[in-house]
Design brief:
five-stranded parallel β-sheet; Rossmann fold; 456 residues; Helicase, Ruva Protein, domain 3; elongated; 18 helices; 4 domains; alpha/beta; 47% helix
């Protein structure tokens, strides 16, 4: 049977035949395309002949060891994922290799299902990274859409890919999400996918920020004499937009009368300016957004059901930042780079302590609030890293403040980290330190990695 091109290829490198063959047989049964090598030299020769998606390599090999294989692959095949295997006696080498660029590592004795899980997770992460790079190219890094592409949360990736699919179509789009999640930026992304040459206008209005009559006038325009002070005809945004995009933010605040006129603009592609008797044809696409549950609003009679049906031809939901905390470190790096450059300051990131605080904060204002927090820290800090002292007291309260640690798990984790750091300052030998702590050496190394101890 011919090999499908989407099947991942794995190279298993181990000088112990039993481990090598057992692992290869298991991975083949899991649907991977597998080859084997008994030495580092043989592995490099096999990779030179036919690159692999992932290399599962023992550290302790005769001749060229796993660390050297990793270093050579990082230069010759940087896209290849490397999963290192180590015995308990060489955990320190594994941790060092992890920081040198290894994708992950496994501890002996090997659990076969754990190998398969790690391989699938690494391949998924690589796919997301490739999608991320593609989206960056598509959206053009010189625009202000960069904040959308940060992180790998599945819901956010799905939202961006859906935006890319719906962009070139004339469909109306409804974007749902809390304030500060990036609804306007996503609307701009959809518009950009529809007008890659930049030949269409993008006009935005916040329905919550404009009084009812003024909003209607802004959207649909008026004719001379429509009201006192209307000394000439004034076309509204629907006319100004041409064949571009009108973004209606917080559409749940739209007055009932204006909802009816918007429905006509979407359904019949025409509007009636204030004071006019004849309709005017329009061609703009509508993208709407709301933080409200519009279905509940419609059920309560506060929003037109027929308008909601028209708006949600395609619905995209953006997750709040508290649901994608794993993306916060990458967000911080992105925002630091953006704002330090704009301010002419030399910040390169945030300290581990600051990242921990930022990752635990609830972020009710989502990415917008995080953006403001990073700007403030850069303004007040001296660099090159953002420190806890640079953050606002809400994010980094004083240790003496009884509200500083009100979450039991966070308090326990903070104490555990401080206790491990204190023992490691007293005992340099990690095996002895693990005995003092009453845990295994492998557990100690996992906690060192978990808390980023000694990595600042």
């Amino acid at each position: 049977m011919p090999i499908r091109p989407d099947i991942a290829s794995v190279l298993v490198v181990d000088d112990e035949p039993l481990i090598r063959d057992t692992l290869a047989e298991y991975l083949q049964g899991q649907g991977f395309r597998v080859a084997v090598a008994a030495s580092g030299e043989a592995a490099l020769a096999a990779i030179k002949k036919s690159p692999f998606d992932i290399v599962v390599c023992d550290i302790n090999l005769p001749g060229l060891d796993g660390i050297e294989v990793l270093e050579r692959l990082s230069r010759s095949n940087p896209e290849t994922l490397v999963l290192l295997i180590t015995a308990y006696a060489t955990v320190e080498s594994a941790v060092e290799a992890f920081h040198k660029g290894a994708s992950d590592y496994l501890m002996k004795p090997i659990l076969l299902h754990e190998v398969s899980q790690k391989i699938r997770r690494l391949l998924t992460q690589r796919k997301l990274a490739q999608e991320n790079q593609w989206l960056r190219r598509e959206l053009n890094r010189e625009t202000d859409l960069g904040d959308l592409i940060v992180g790998k949360h599945p819901a956010m990736r799905a939202a961006l890919l859906l935006a890319q699919k719906v962009g070139p179509t004339p469909s109306t789009v409804l974007i749902l999400g809390e304030g500060g999640t990036g609804k306007k930026m996503l609307a701009r992304a959809i518009h950009k996918f529809a007008h890659p040459a930049g030949d269409g206008r993008f006009l935005a209005v916040n329905c919550a920020g404009v009084p009812g009559e003024s909003l209607e006038n802004q959207l649909f325009g008026h004719v001379q004499g429509a009201y006192g002070g209307a000394i000439s005809d004034q076309p509204g945004l629907f006319v100004h937009a041409g064949a571009g995009t009108i973004f209606l933010d917080e559409i749940g605040e739209l007055p009932p009368g204006t909802q009816a006129k918007l429905l006509r603009a979407i359904e019949q592609r025409e509007i009636v300016p204030l004071g006019a008797n004849e309709p005017v044809p329009v061609h703009a696409r509508v993208i709407a957004a709301s933080h409200r549950d519009l279905s509940a609003e419609a059920a309560a009679g506060r929003f037109r059901e027929d308008l909601l049906v028209r708006l949600k031809t395609v619905t995209i939901a953006l997750p709040p930042l508290r649901d994608r905390r794993e993306d916060i470190p990458e967000f911080v790096d992105h925002l630091v780079a953006k704002h330090s450059k704009a301010m002419g300051k030399r910040f390169v990131g945030a300290s581990r302590e600051a990242i921990e605080l930022l990752s635990r904060y609830p972020w009710k204002g989502n990415v917008r609030e995080l953006d403001n927090a990073i700007q403030r820290a850069i303004i007040l800090g001296d660099g090159p890293l953002i420190r806890p002292a640079d953050l606002s007291p809400d994010i980094a309260p004083s240790p003496d403040d009884p509200s500083a640690v009100d979450d039991l798990n966070a308090a326990a984790a903070r104490f555990e980290k401080q206790h491990i750091e204190r023992i490691l300052r007293q005992i340099a030998d990690k095996r002895e330190a693990a005995k003092r702590l009453g845990i295994g050496l492998s557990s100690l190394y996992r906690k060192i990695e978990q808390y980023s101890i000694g990595d600042r």
